[in-house]
Structures are given as C-alpha cells and as structure tokens.
Amino acid sequence: MTPPNALPGALNHIRVLDLSRVLAGPWCSQNLADLGADVIKIERPGAGDDTRAWGPPYAADAAGNPTTEAAYYLSANRGKRSVTVDIASSEGQALLRDLVRHCDVVIENFKVGHLKRYGLDYESLQAIKPDLVYCSITGFGQDGPYAHRAGYDFLIQGMGGLMSITGERDDLPGGGPQKAGVAITDLMTGMYATVAVLAALTHRDRTGQGQRIDMSLLDTQVAMLANVGSNYLNSGKRPRRWGNAHANIVPYQTFACRDGHLIVATGNDGQYRKFVEAGGRPELAHDARFATNPLRVQNRDALVPLLAAMVREKDRDDWIALLEEAGVPCGPINELDEVFANEQVQARGMQIALPHPQAGEVKLVRSPMKLSALPSTSDKAPPLLGQHTDEVLREVLGKSGEEIAALRAKRVL
Description:
Elements: E1 15-18, H1 24-34, E2 38-43, E3 58-60, E4 66-70, H2 71-74, E5 80-84, H3 90-100, E6 105-108, H4 122-128, E7 133-138, H5 153-159, H6 184-207, E8 211-216, H7 217-223, H8 226-235, E9 252-256, E10 261-265, H9 269-278, H10 283-286, H11 293-298, H12 300-311, H13 316-326, E11 330-332, H14 336-341, H15 343-347, E12 351-356, E13 360-365, H16 389-397, H17 401-409
Parallel strand pairs: 1-2, 1-6, 2-5, 6-7, 7-8
Antiparallel strand pairs: 3-4, 9-10, 10-11, 12-13
C-alpha cells in the first residue's frame, strides 16, 4: 500500500482512512502519520472536523490576522491529507468503500451502529477488504449496558475514577474533585489505540488476517488508574485525594517559596536528609518521628508545616540550585512560556514550525517519539479543509478531473 513518493518512515507502507474527529481518534492517526503512514482524513464538506471551529486562538498569518485554523485542530492533525466526502450520500459511501480497498487501516469514532446504515461498519468493509484493521473508538465500547451512550472526556474522568483521586484534600481549602487540565482520557485512548493498531498490523503481516479493534474511553480510564486501581483492588479501601502531595511518600509535593512554587520529590530517606540539611534544618532528619518514610507518612501533618516554613525562607531558583547540588529531585512549576523557553525542551526540539498555506508557518509541538533510524514527526502541517481531495481521488482512485468535478457539482465532495 506504499503511496507514491512516500517520505521515509517506519509506516510509509501503510495507508489509513481516518473517519474520526475531535481528539482521541485524531491523536491516534497523528501518531501513525508521524511514523510515516499516509493518513487520509475524511471530513464533512463545508464544515470539517468540529475542532476547526474550537477557537480562539487560531493560527495567525504573516500580518498577525487569524486564519480559519483553530489551534485545537492544529494540535492533533499534523501530517494528514484532508478529503471532503458527504458520507450521508450513496455516492459518498461508494467513494469511501473504494478508498478502503486501497487502505490498511480504518479509524472511526462514531456512535455504536451509526456507520452500519452507510455500509461503512466493520462487517461491510471487511467483506471487501478481508485483511482490514478497523479501529472503533467510543465512550463505552461496542457492548455492555452503556454502549449506546455518548462519551466525553470530562464525563469519563469522573465516571472512571480519575476525579476521585485528583484535587486538593477534602479537609483543606479548595478541596474536592478536579478534572485534569488536558483531556487526558481522550489522549490516552488515542495512545492505546495506536499501540493496538500497530499490534493488529503486525498480526496481519504474519497471518494475512485483519481484525476489529474496540477502544473505549471508560476502559482506558479504568486501566490508567494503574497503581491506584491496584491499591484499591488489593486493599478494598477507597483512595483519597491528596492534591499535590503523595499518598505513600513524604515529602513528595509542592511547597511555596518566597517568590513562587517548588516541587520536591524525595524518593528515599537519604534524599530527605539532604533536603532538610540544605534548608538548614538537619535536626528534622534526626527527629524520631521523621527518620523513615513510613514514619514521615504517619506524621505528615506534623512534618509538612515545618518543611513549608523552611522552604518559604528562600527563593525558588535558590532552592533549585541548592537541591540540584545536593542530588535532591526538585523542579519549578512552569508556565507555558517558561516550558517552551526551557533549555532542555529546546535542546530536544519539542517545538517545530511547519509551512502552512494560510499562516505561512504554524508552530506545533513535535512528537516525543525519537527513532534513531527513521524520522518520527511529519513535516506536513495539519491540512486545510479538503486540501487534498482532488489529489487523493486522482492518485488513489484514478479519478479524472471531469469525474471529480461531477462529484463536486453533486455536493458529494
């Protein structure tokens, strides 16, 4: 399935038909595009992916004027080709079925059963492409009593337990459940979906057999509870919210400095001892109540106010210098301007700029996947709506200019 003139990439032999929109599905397909796959993003004529309108902010042109491309959309659609197709029309459905014959993977995040009415469900497409890998992403999965419910990241963070462990302690000011600052369930579902697609492609290459992947936001959220979920299953005790502290390690939290905030993460007794010595309070290392981590956890309400008073005596950068020299894990809480100005972030090339037909160039966050033998971030900016419709129909399906014009006249494209 290698597309013509494919750029180097681990997946440059793979073509993906991406019927997904918003975040979880596009995050998966962007990962595949970063790894070299030819991702054909199918969008509604005239409107496109919902996130195209999720602004401001929008990318700006050379004069500083906003374009039509919302920054939210730009974050999840790098490296793809946009094709507009009206899937509600019979001709649009036939066009997509033709495209599927030339693709390895389909990704979709419609409600359960929605695509069956269009003949674009797994069973219909598997009949014409037996080795197809078909990835469905929904809120609750393809079966079970909630299967037909709509699922959104915020709801799933609550239903899946994340908000029960996120937020300040209930007995402190501001205590209560809190969602994460980014749509982490959507993002993690996209990441798990990426892994599943790669596994299914490996299986196909070995056996010639395609398969359906059933990804659920709720499943993902339950899975990513990780050690907290395991703690509950093995103790039967509900975990509690700890804010910026840790349930099992003290001190492992934020502290207010004289001019900002500092994270201190002492993972063992030696690091704790170095921390209080650097702060001029060595007696806290020898206090019998605080000598070991279990004792510090037991006596956190006595210890933490003492540490907080100690930390307030110095500026943040002075603390960081002291603790780095002492070998105590620590760090600032950066605003985003500080993140992208950080020397390590810059050295790792995490900000990129790609050519864009409206904005001249757009600033994006690059993929964190770094492969020694192959590039792992696409050099193509997120596409304009329908930017590649004619190109893909000519290249993949062999459509003539007249045929494409006729489809456009019928508002199929």
